[in-house]
Each structure stands twice: as structure tokens, then as C-alpha cells.
Amino acid sequence: MAVAVDEIKKLREETGAGIADCKEALSLSKGNFDKAKEVLAHKGFDKAGEKAERDVKAGVVEVYSHAGRVGVLVEVLCETDFVAKTDDFKSLAHELALQIASMNPSSVEELLNQEYIRDSSQTIDQLVKAKVGKLGENIQIGRFERIALGD
């Protein structure tokens, strides 16, 4: 099936997936845009599983303070400094800090199983795996600390 270039471009802009992956997803879904997004999401999860054993030696420590009453430090790890410096990776670290400030998980495992506060249709684990698929590197949450005034 021939896929229109503007459809590939639109899918790429919405998902951040590569051009070839977008074209393949649209072909597999017979041009159905929503199904193509599902194909890419599934492919991202497949990539995440393949990369899960790779060493993570780079990353960022995100710092977030909510109105001076709740503070969060979260360590988000990846394989290279190159990925750690991308806006997508930094955005993920910030979203994780917001999640921790809002939902107060007691462990990384609990955090990964929580519904994402901005989109209840996905978990934090799915959010991280989507970024793994997009960025092409193993990404892990190292540790975090949440401090609330008066606790």
C-alpha cells in the first residue's frame, strides 16, 4: 500500500518515531492513523525489552519544587550523555518529578505501576518504555526522594 508523505510526516510529528517506522506502521495499519500509532507504541515496547539489559551510566538528576512545600529529586538514567541532553529525555525526567510530587510513591516499582497523572490511559512504565522506543536507549529510574514540608 502506498503511504502519503504528509501522513508519514504527521505520524512522525505526533509520535517522534523514525520515518521508516512511521511508513511501516501506516502500511501495516492500511492507512488507519490510530492503528498506526498503536503499532508504533507496541514496537516501542518491543524495543524497550531488547534494551533493558544495557548498562545505564549517564542521565540527569531532576529537581522540582512545588510552591516551596514539596520538593523532589529524581535520578533518571540512560546509556549516553547524548541522549541525556535531549529535550525528550529532560522532559521525561521532569514529568517523573511531577508524578512523584503529586502521587508520593514509596518505591520505584510503585512509581512504575502508577497511572500517569497527565494521561490515565497509560502507566509510568508505559511512558518510560515509549521514550525508550523513541530515543533508542535503555532508560531507568535510579532513585528518588520526596520531601514535604512538615512531614
H and E string: HHHEEHHHEEHE
Rough shape? Answer: elongated
Strand content: 15-25%
Q: Please state the CA-atom Rg, rounded to the nearest Å.
A: 17 Å
Q: Could you say what the CATH architecture of the largest domain is?
A: 2-Layer Sandwich
Largest sheet: 3 strands, antiparallel
Content-based structural category: alpha+beta
What CATH first level of the largest domain would be assigned?
Alpha Beta
Enumerate the spans where pLDDT stays under 50 for 5 or more consecutive residues: none
What is the CATH superfamily of the largest domain?
Elongation factor Ts, dimerisation domain
* CATH domain topology of the largest domain: Tetrahydropterin Synthase, Chain A
Strand order of the largest sheet: 1-2-5
Provide the helix percentage.
40-55%
Mean pLDDT over the residues = 89
DSSP E strands, number: 5
Could you describe the 3D structure shown?
The protein has 151 residues and is an alpha+beta fold. It folds into 2 domains: 47 residues, Helicase, Ruva Protein, domain 3 (Orthogonal Bundle); 91 residues, Tetrahydropterin Synthase, Chain A (2-Layer Sandwich). Helix content is 52%, strand content 23%. A 3-stranded antiparallel β-sheet has the order 1-2-5. A hairpin with a 2-residue loop joins strand 3 and strand 4. The chain is elongated, with a radius of gyration of 17 Å. The N and C termini lie far apart (60 Å).
